[in-house]
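pinging the channel bc i need a second pair of eyes. not urgent but kinda urgent?? the chain im working w is below, pasted from the shared doc
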Amino acid sequence: MRKPRPPAAKFSVANIKAIAFDGYGTLFDFMEPDFIVTFAEICALQGLEADAADMWRRFIRASLHFRSENHREPVYRRYDEAWALQFENVFKQLKLTGDSWAAAEYFREKLATATTFPEVYPVLEALRPRYRLAVLSNSDDDFLTAALRRNNLSFDVVVTSEQAGAIKPDPAIFHHLARRLELEPAQILYAGDNPIPDVLGPRQAGFKVAWVNRVGARRPRKVPPPDIRVRNLMELLPVLLPDASPANASAAGGDARHRRSRQLHDLARRHMPGGVSSPVRAFKAVGGRPPIIAYGQGPRVFDVDGNAYIDYVAAFGPLILGHAHPAVTDVLTRAIERGTAYGATTEMEVELARTICDAIPSVQMLRFVSSGTEATMSALRLARAFTGRDKIVKFEGCYHGHADGLLAKAGSGQATLGLPDSPGVPESYAVQTLVVPFNDGEAVRHLFDEHPEEIAAVIVEPIAGNMGVVPPEPGFLQRLRELTHEHGSLLLFDEVITGFRLHYGGVQTMFGIEPDLTCLGKIIGGGLPIGAYGGRREIMEMVAPQGPVYQAGTLAGNPLAMAAGIATLGALADETAYPRLEISAIVLEDGLRRAAEETETPVRINRVGSLLTIFFTDTPVTDFASAKRSDTGRYAAFFRQMFSRGVFLPPSQFEAMFVSLAHGDDEIAQTIEAARESLAAIR
């Protein structure tokens, strides 16, 4: 009988003084598939008939033959010269008449374009106060120095093959690194991605080893097990910084906790209006500098300086499963290998359309688009065509995207920035939009009386999310359904935020109200750009090519968004998903309310399911007018206090907080404690 294998010893950081990193594949985003593609490109450029993967394997074997004595020769002091000889060797083996120098130069140029993986900056900044940092690469000095400078990376020690006179996995190069660090090998943790040079080599030299196995490869039998196995560098932080607060890693960032974010934001403002791609992200409503985000994992985001934040922005709604959920990332990894876009229908597109139509009874047919704005714009065009009317009714504070005619009293970013209603929109467009207060059914009735047979549609967020969260009063949505039926208009539910957020079939299935048209987005794409509009078959059959209403989009039905959407809705079909969200949100709401009471802070918290907003006011918030009476200055101060404690709230009073399935008991408890401290600080 075989003896049971003894348990592996738990890795301890107690004796670790330095962290050393491999270059390409670990720091720089250039892995084995990129090398193989590069070899295929070399073959295409030189007209060579050879298998690129086989050429790459032969190239690696050729490089491993260059031992210490060869690297002391002058010819190997330049990386491209060594490559040229290796290409020449491979060409001879395969009987190819290729230009080895041209191949080496092309190889160099491709490697020179590689940028860092997104988590590199926050990881290095987090580790720097506690450990000495080093990089080791099979290269010459000039090449590695240029790569580090190009990506603005700095290390305490930089070691190349040229300096050490050896190539990984030769232990000599690792012994050279230990001497440069003035440490014993066992005091150094080496992190690399390739099992033989980056696990076998440092292990033979006596180093501790972290295998950064980004692609989920199996460890070769002849390679000893690493001390740590991770999928990316960010996963090293809980191991290497066990005492750091998971909610706020500012201690790891030291005095420079936002330095790189500030640098990148300054650069962004030179090339993008306000340094952002959407206005609320600029933090104008709350003050301070926005973080530049490098990475998201579960309930947290990490900025480029290594700071961690419990995230309630959640990309403004789509990430109901949390960041980088395996159900989504796994299908995306497989999908991207098949291509990123086709300009043709895919099976996944049909599957997601079927899933949505089965979940929402009022949606008998739908059309995919690329954003929520595109969905509402297209749906209203369709409503006008179907009814033969021009006017649209919308509600103050409801935001339906930035299409002309929908920016009148639109809430959200407009309210945040205090912008005029519709600059740049011709008056002839704006006059077709009639605006009334949210939750005021009688105001809608008066509009129908004033404009008989002129109103094409009433568009509404069934639960407002862009003046902060404001639920409909009892009977309000039913009244809209009655009035639109009575006057031959269409009722359009904008469920870009609420679709699949509060209930598997959307708000309309939760309330038992069927609109004529529905707009969706956010969650149905699992975090990728998407939108959709759908409704009764007789209406949707008017959309081209089946009908005369033209609408098209190059990336509509994008296969990556379809894959992520299918995975996300599949996870939400679990009958426990929405009860878990509800419980987390209830606990959070109760904790925030108690924190406000303890600090004698007047607040109103509006919550529906996993959507909530804390308003700094002592009166109920039922529409846009009452939302605007809240103390936005106090919200800004609260935001900054929470941000400093590692909690990322929406950077506007008029946005919603989003609770995800990734928010566990610990994150909720940390948020409540941060709120208690923050409210006490702004009294």
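so Residues 1-8, 245-255, 410-420 have pLDDT under 50 and may be disordered. and The first strand starts at residue 18 and ends at 22. — does that match what u expected or am i reading it wrong
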